[in-house]
Amino acid sequence: MDQRILQAWRPQPKQKTALECPADELFYGGAKGGGKSDYLLGDFTRNIRYGPHHRGILFRKTYEEFAELQARAEEIYPKIGAEYKRGDRTWIFPGGANLKMRYLARDSDVQRYQGHQYSWVGFDEVSEYQTDYCYVFMFSCARSPYGVPVSIRSTGNPGRPGHVWLKERFINGKRPFELYWDKEMRMYSAFIPASLDDNQILMQKDPGYDSRLKALPAHLYRAFRKGDWDIFAGQAFEEFRRELHVIEPIPLEPSWRRVASFDWGYKRPYSMGWWAVTHDGRVIRYREMYGVMKDPVTGRPKHNVGVEKSSKDLAEESFRISVPEGCRDCVADRSIWAKIDERPSIAETFAAAGWNMVKADNDRISGLARVHDYMKGIAADGRPLLLVSSTCTDWIRTIPLLIVDEKNPEDIDTNGEDHAYDETRYFLMSGYTLPKRRELVNVGRAYEYQTDKDYNPLDWEMK
C-alpha cells in the first residue's frame, strides 16, 4: 500500500489480511465493531495508481447510513489528497481515480446503473439487503476495458435481513480465508471473518462497548459480538455451535455401534445419516447422503428441491457403502412402509437391498426434545453428546436454519428443509442410542471390558 495511504490510515492485522487477499469477490463479515467500513475505504485505494481508469462505487442502503460512511471517509481521504465533489457525491484522488458514494434504498434503484462500468464495487453492510438482487446486478457493471484489476468487496453482520443468502453464498460448506472458484462468475471468492477483538483501536478507546452489546437479546449478542452465522431470531436450535458440535473426521472404533437413519424424498430431498454410538453414550454422525438438486452453474443447493432418485438405486448404493463396516440397521419414517398397489413399498425395496429396516418412533414433540437433549448434553470429556463430522455438509447447512412452528412452539416448522433433522430425530428416538456400558473387570491376570449393562447417557446431568 502506498506510503501516503499508510500515513492517512494504517490497517489493523485482520484488515491487512483482507487487503492482501487476491480474491476477485471478498466478503468481510462478522461482528459489529470489526472495522469493516474502514476496510472498504482502504481497499479502494489499493489501485488508485491507475488514475482515472480506476473507477469505484460504494453503496449503503439508506441515506442515513451513507452519511455515516461519508463522515468516516472525510476523516481519511483528504489526508491522501482526495477531494470530495459534493454535487456528484464523488471522491477524486490525485491522478484521477474516483469513488462514487451512493445508496440503494430499494431493489429497483440499482437499475439506474445499467450500462455503467467500475473496476471496484463495494457494499457496506450488504447484510441489510433481504435478497441478493442489488448485489448480483452490480456484477454486470464490474469490468474495466483498461486492464485495471476488478474487485467486488462487501461487509455485513449475521442476524440481519440478508443473513440467509449471505450464509449460503459465503459460509456454508466453505472455510474462511480460502479461495473458491465461482464457475458462474468465472472468478475467485473468499470470506474473511471479522470480530470485535480484531478492532484493537476500538477495544482500547471504548472498552465498555462489549458490555453494552450484552444488553442485546441472546441471538443478537452471538451475532453482533461473536460474528456467529449459525444464529438468528426464531431459530429452533439456538444451542448449536459450529465450533463445538462439528468435528473433523475421526477413526471409528470397531466396537462402536453403527446405525443409519433415513427420511425419504423424491420431489423433496432425501436424507440418510450414518451414526456411531460410542461406549460413553455419545453419538457421532460420520457420513450422510443427501439428495438435493444443485444449480448446474454455481453448484449451490436449490432450496428443498429433490433429485428424483429411485428408491431402488438409493437403497443399493447406500447399502454398498454400509455393509463393509458392518452397518445394516436403518431407522426410517413409518410412512415408507405404506403400499399403493402390488409393487414393493420403499421399505421393502430397502430390505431387498440388504437393509434391516426399523420403523421410527414419529412422536414429533418428544423427538424435538430428544434432539435438544443430545445437542445440549455434555459428555465426560466436556464435549457435546452429539457430534457431526465436517463432511456432513447438508446437516450443518440445514439444521441451523430451522425455525419453530408458530402455531406449535413444541415442533419444527415443516416448511423448512427439515429432512436431515427428521432422520436425526428418528435415530435419537430409537433404542440404538443405548450402548452397552464398558466396565473394567478383573479376569485373573488382566482387566477386560465387559458389555453387560445398558444405560442412557441422558440420565447424566445436563449442563
Provide structural commentary.
This protein starts with a helix and ends in a 9-residue tail after the last strand. It is elongated, with a radius of gyration of 26 Å. Helix content is 27%, strand content 23%. It has 463 residues and is an alpha/beta fold. A nine-stranded mixed β-sheet has the order 3-4-5-2-6-7-1-9-8. Strands 10-18-13-12-11-16-17 form a seven-stranded mixed β-sheet. A two-stranded antiparallel ribbon has the order 14-15.
Overall mean pLDDT stands at 87
- The first-to-last residue Cα distance is 50 Å
What shape does the CA trace take?
A: elongated
Question: Count of helical segments?
Answer: 15
Strand order of the largest sheet: 3-4-5-2-6-7-1-9-8
What name does the CATH topology of the largest domain carry?
Answer: Rossmann fold
- How many β-strands, per DSSP? 20
Q: What Rg is obtained from the alpha carbons, in whole angstroms?
A: 26 Å
The CATH H-level superfamily of the largest domain is P-loop containing nucleotide triphosphate hydrolases
CATH class of the largest domain: Alpha Beta
Major beta-sheet overview: 9 strands, mixed
